[in-house]
Amino acid sequence: MRDIVLVRLRGYTNYITPPLGIGYLFKALEGINEVNLVFIDEHRDKMKEEELLARIKMTRPIVIGFQVFSVDYAKFCRRIPKIRKICPEAKIIAGGPHITGLPEQALIDNPDLDFVVKGEGEEAIRLLVLSLLKGSLDSRIKDIPNLVYRTSNGIVRNRSEFVDVNRYGAPAWKIIEPHKYPPIQQGTFHKSNRVVPILTSRGCPYPCTFCAGHLITGKTIRRRSINSVVDEIEFLQANYGFGEIIIEDENFTFYKDHILGLSNEIQRRNIKCYFSFPNGIRSDRLDEEIVHHLKQIRTYMVTLGIESGSEKTLRAMKKNWDLQALKKKINLLKANGISILGSFILGFSNETKEDIKKTINFAIESGVDTAYFGNYIPLPGSEDFNRMINNGEIKLEEINWNAYTSYLGRIPYHPPDISEKELLEAIRWATIRFYCRPKIILNLIKRMTRPIFLKSLIFRIINLFKRYDNQHESKSY
């Protein structure tokens, strides 16, 4: 019996959620009797590097796999040679958003890395493991979808393929152990202290230039069956007592019949829990009937990815909102008792200070209950990233991946006309202007129902002001 070890690296925020992607990989591997499945969550368990290496050393791995985000990449590169030293025979594989955006570069940077997966990994890892067990990898490797690897003739990308989302059903929850994760997972407030994420669909057809999600899940929305999703919710409640379901679909509201079907089945089975959508929904797909059904299943919060209050910026990012129509959808949600978090990007490519002012003003005027202001990041594989690399605006070899995040006051990118200090100041000023209003403060106080919520709020405030870099004062926004 050999081990398949999948690792989630330790992150930089206090948000620790069960990794759905790894859960789906384990589900694809569950039917292989010759292997033992081992999950290591360095982030959840607050493991140091030496603890991770010791844990891996205890196993007998045939494959060691990593989920890699851009902010994890430098850490991942440091780990790989050390893991190769203690597990010389294991195949080391990596996937996730960063790897999907830069698959060849990951292999070039990491000579000890055997394979990477570009896109969804269920079929790739299942066929890879089966081929290794049968000793037939050399003859079968070209048939493994989404796999990228070295040959004597250079780096090869196999064909791209998206999985049937109904083939495997829900993630392998018993391996992931979702009950071991903290009650604050996305956002500061939840209705329940037992919270878990799920996916009901994959894919996004929209052309937003800042997003690279379609590289992993495709541009066609693939929906899980209604019964499969509701069965998963019942399983999570019955086995772990979860009182709130976070739906993390990229486009939950795209198909109206999907929303109504889920709502009707949840009500038919008399499932009692809360629902939230911190990953965001499309406001332009909402109507009164959809919002009514969201309310009926006890949806209490949605995020709207508004991104900007500047029409120029919205056109540039190919997110052509009608801002006045958007305000009407916000009012519709609020009329049904659903709280709204507005998500905004500051410092988009070629933005000016005036564009940022428009975004801040719109956030305040829009009627959203809470707001998140994050610095823009050119995500590997996105249209923006590829354009900036091609025109020399950013250089791959100069990127500091340790700082490649919109959290913790790190600014890995700023537009030419706005300095790093000015962008950081704008984010802080936007947050202060939005939240230092009596109505918003009272709303926060009402939602402060558990000590953990206060702790999370304090964490956010500290991180908002923790870095100044001793730079000179810049013009206010």
Give structural attributes.
alpha/beta; pyruvate-formate lyase- activating enzyme; 19 helices; 477 residues; 40% helix; Rossmann fold; 2 domains
Can you characterise this structure?
This protein has helices at residues 20-29, 49-57, 73-86, 97-101, 103-109, 122-134, 137-140, 173-176, 213-217, 226-240, 256-268, 288-296, 311-316, 323-335, 353-365, 383-390, 420-435, 438-447, 451-465, and strands at residues 2-8, 35-41, 61-67, 91-95, 115-117, 147-151, 154-157, 195-198, 201-202, 222-223, 244-247, 274-281, 299-307, 339-346, 370-375. With 477 residues, it is α/β, with parallel strands linked by helices. The protein folds into two domains: 2-157, Cobalamin-binding domain (Rossmann fold), CATH 3.40.50; 182-465, tm_1862 like domain (pyruvate-formate lyase- activating enzyme, Alpha-Beta Horseshoe), CATH 3.80.30. The strands form three sheets. Strands 2-1-3-4-5-6-7 form a seven-stranded mixed beta sheet, sandwiched between helices. Strand 14 (339-346), helix 15 and strand 15 form a beta-alpha-beta unit. Helix 2 packs parallel to helix 3 (73-86) and helix 11 (256-268) packs parallel to helix 12. The protein is globular.
